[in-house]
Amino acid sequence: MAPAAAGFDLTAVPLSTAELGAFPYFSLPEGYERTGEESYDHFAFPFWVEGAFRTVEGKVHMSMIGPEDGRRFSRLELQRNIEAVLDSVGSVKVSQAPVPIDAINGLGDQVISNTTAGTGDIYNNEVATYVIRRPDKTIWVHFDAGSSTAGLTVAETAPLRVTAGLLPADQLRRELEADGRVAIQVNFAVDKAEILPDSRPQIDAVLALLRGQPDLRLAVEGHTDNTGAAAHNRALSEARARSVVAALTSAGVGADRLQPRGFGPDRPVADNQTEAGRASNRRVELVRL
What are the distances in angstroms from CA 115 to CA 31, 94, 111, 120, 184? Predict the structure, then answer.
């Protein structure tokens, strides 16, 4: 996956308290319509910011924009209307530039395919990115327009509602005895191997399991969905597995009892065509050795 726009400081964007309607918030000017719409409660979309892609996760709505029957498409008219409505709600344009082909290709075929409904023709069009920072969420907007169509994506960041539950040590033991493997609930920072603080109870449960069975040896396996480049995901999944191992060994578990492995997208357990399936595929598993 392309590198994130590390130099962009979201906190520098002024807060907006302007009234907003229902998501995806913005209507189109007369004579234009959305086509090929796709909407997700939780999705990842790459926004072009300061010379790099910044992947934003949250509620996402993507669409192409075209003229209604009998209407001639005007890039300038559409752009002026989009800018006016965004200005009215306190948006800040954080980027407007063409995207280099190497950066687009760096996203990987799967990301490009998954986001075509909202990226328009980023190979040829200049891309504008807007941010609306609010006290409870941040809204990102991607807009690009060509000679006959445009692409529009609106993303609203929000915490992922975790539906998977914490597995206590006794349940971990039972599932390992029955199946030889068990998926654990470990959350990481987006596209990083950093374990988030809310994963501490699950790490503690694994510690209790290992301390209660001194002879138990485990492979710690990292897995991802198929979003992004496969090689990147394999490296990321292994780094995440190593982070889990490091958390356990730092608490006194012998390193010889744990073996980190990363499989990236190679061993899915669900359909990557759905968000629920991709969420199931993003996992850490313990496997009895």
Answer: 25, 20, 6, 9, 29
